[in-house]
Amino acid sequence: MVLMRQEIGDVLRDFRLQKGRTLRQVAGEASVALGYLSEVERGQKEASSEILAAVADALDTPLSIIMGEVSERLAVVEGLSMPLPGRVPDTVPAELMSGYAAELVS
Amino acid sequence: MVLMRQEIGDVLRDFRLQKGRTLRQVAGEASVALGYLSEVERGQKEASSEILAAVADALDTPLSIIMGEVSERLAVVEGLSMPLPGRVPDTVPAELMSGYAAELVS
């Protein structure tokens, strides 16, 4: 069974890392407990719609973008699409991405 | 604040109506209480990931497709995209759609 909270957690963590933010920073800005956000990121807790909205806001990322990414990853898990070739690995932080991208085009 | 459960509820109901299925049928197949599914569709209850997966399964619709539609509607609500011109209204049941589509191309 494909579980959405797993994908949501992965995507939230990846966006956070890409922005170079810590759990503590995002939890603080979103006014959610750090332990709770950590559990959400690990797919262990369902995030309510209110908390999702607050976390998206703290990440300066529209919820539609987050859920679009969740949908794409679900499609991969469901075998409906393949990951893009040369796709940046999910957990690469922003500071490493420019180097990675440069490698791809070189 | 944009609430995801509202969009999820709308999308689940629209997919159900497009397939000409009743709440009772889908709730039965997904093994969830009818009243609960009804509340989910009205955006009054958060659906757990397990229930979302079961309802998607009962609707013969991959979760990625459902969440892709949720993402698109969130983008409209967030002002990031406009609904497609000539888009089929959200709650038109399947039996009416062929006529509607015919009207659009005539």
Polypeptide structure, described:
The structure is a homodimer of 106-residue chains. By secondary structure, chain A is mainly alpha-helical. Chain A has one domain (4-105): lambda repressor-like DNA-binding domains (434 Repressor (Amino-terminal Domain), Orthogonal Bundle), CATH 1.10.260.40. Chain A has six helices and no strands. Chain A has helices at residues 4-18, 23-30, 34-41, 49-58, 63-77, 94-105. In chain A, helix 1 crosses helix 5 (63-77) and helix 2 packs across helix 4. The longest helix of chain A is centred in the N-terminal third of the chain and has 15 residues, at 4-18. The model of chain A is unreliable at 92-106 (pLDDT under 50). Chains A and B meet through helix 1, helix 4 and helix 5 of A and helix 1, helix 4 and helix 5 of B. Chains A, B: Residues 12-66 form the HTH cro/C1-type domain. Chains A, B: One of its GO terms (molecular function) is DNA binding. Chains A, B: InterPro entries: Cro/C1-type_HTH (IPR001387), Lambda_DNA-bd_dom_sf (IPR010982). Chains A, B: This is Helix-turn-helix transcriptional regulator.
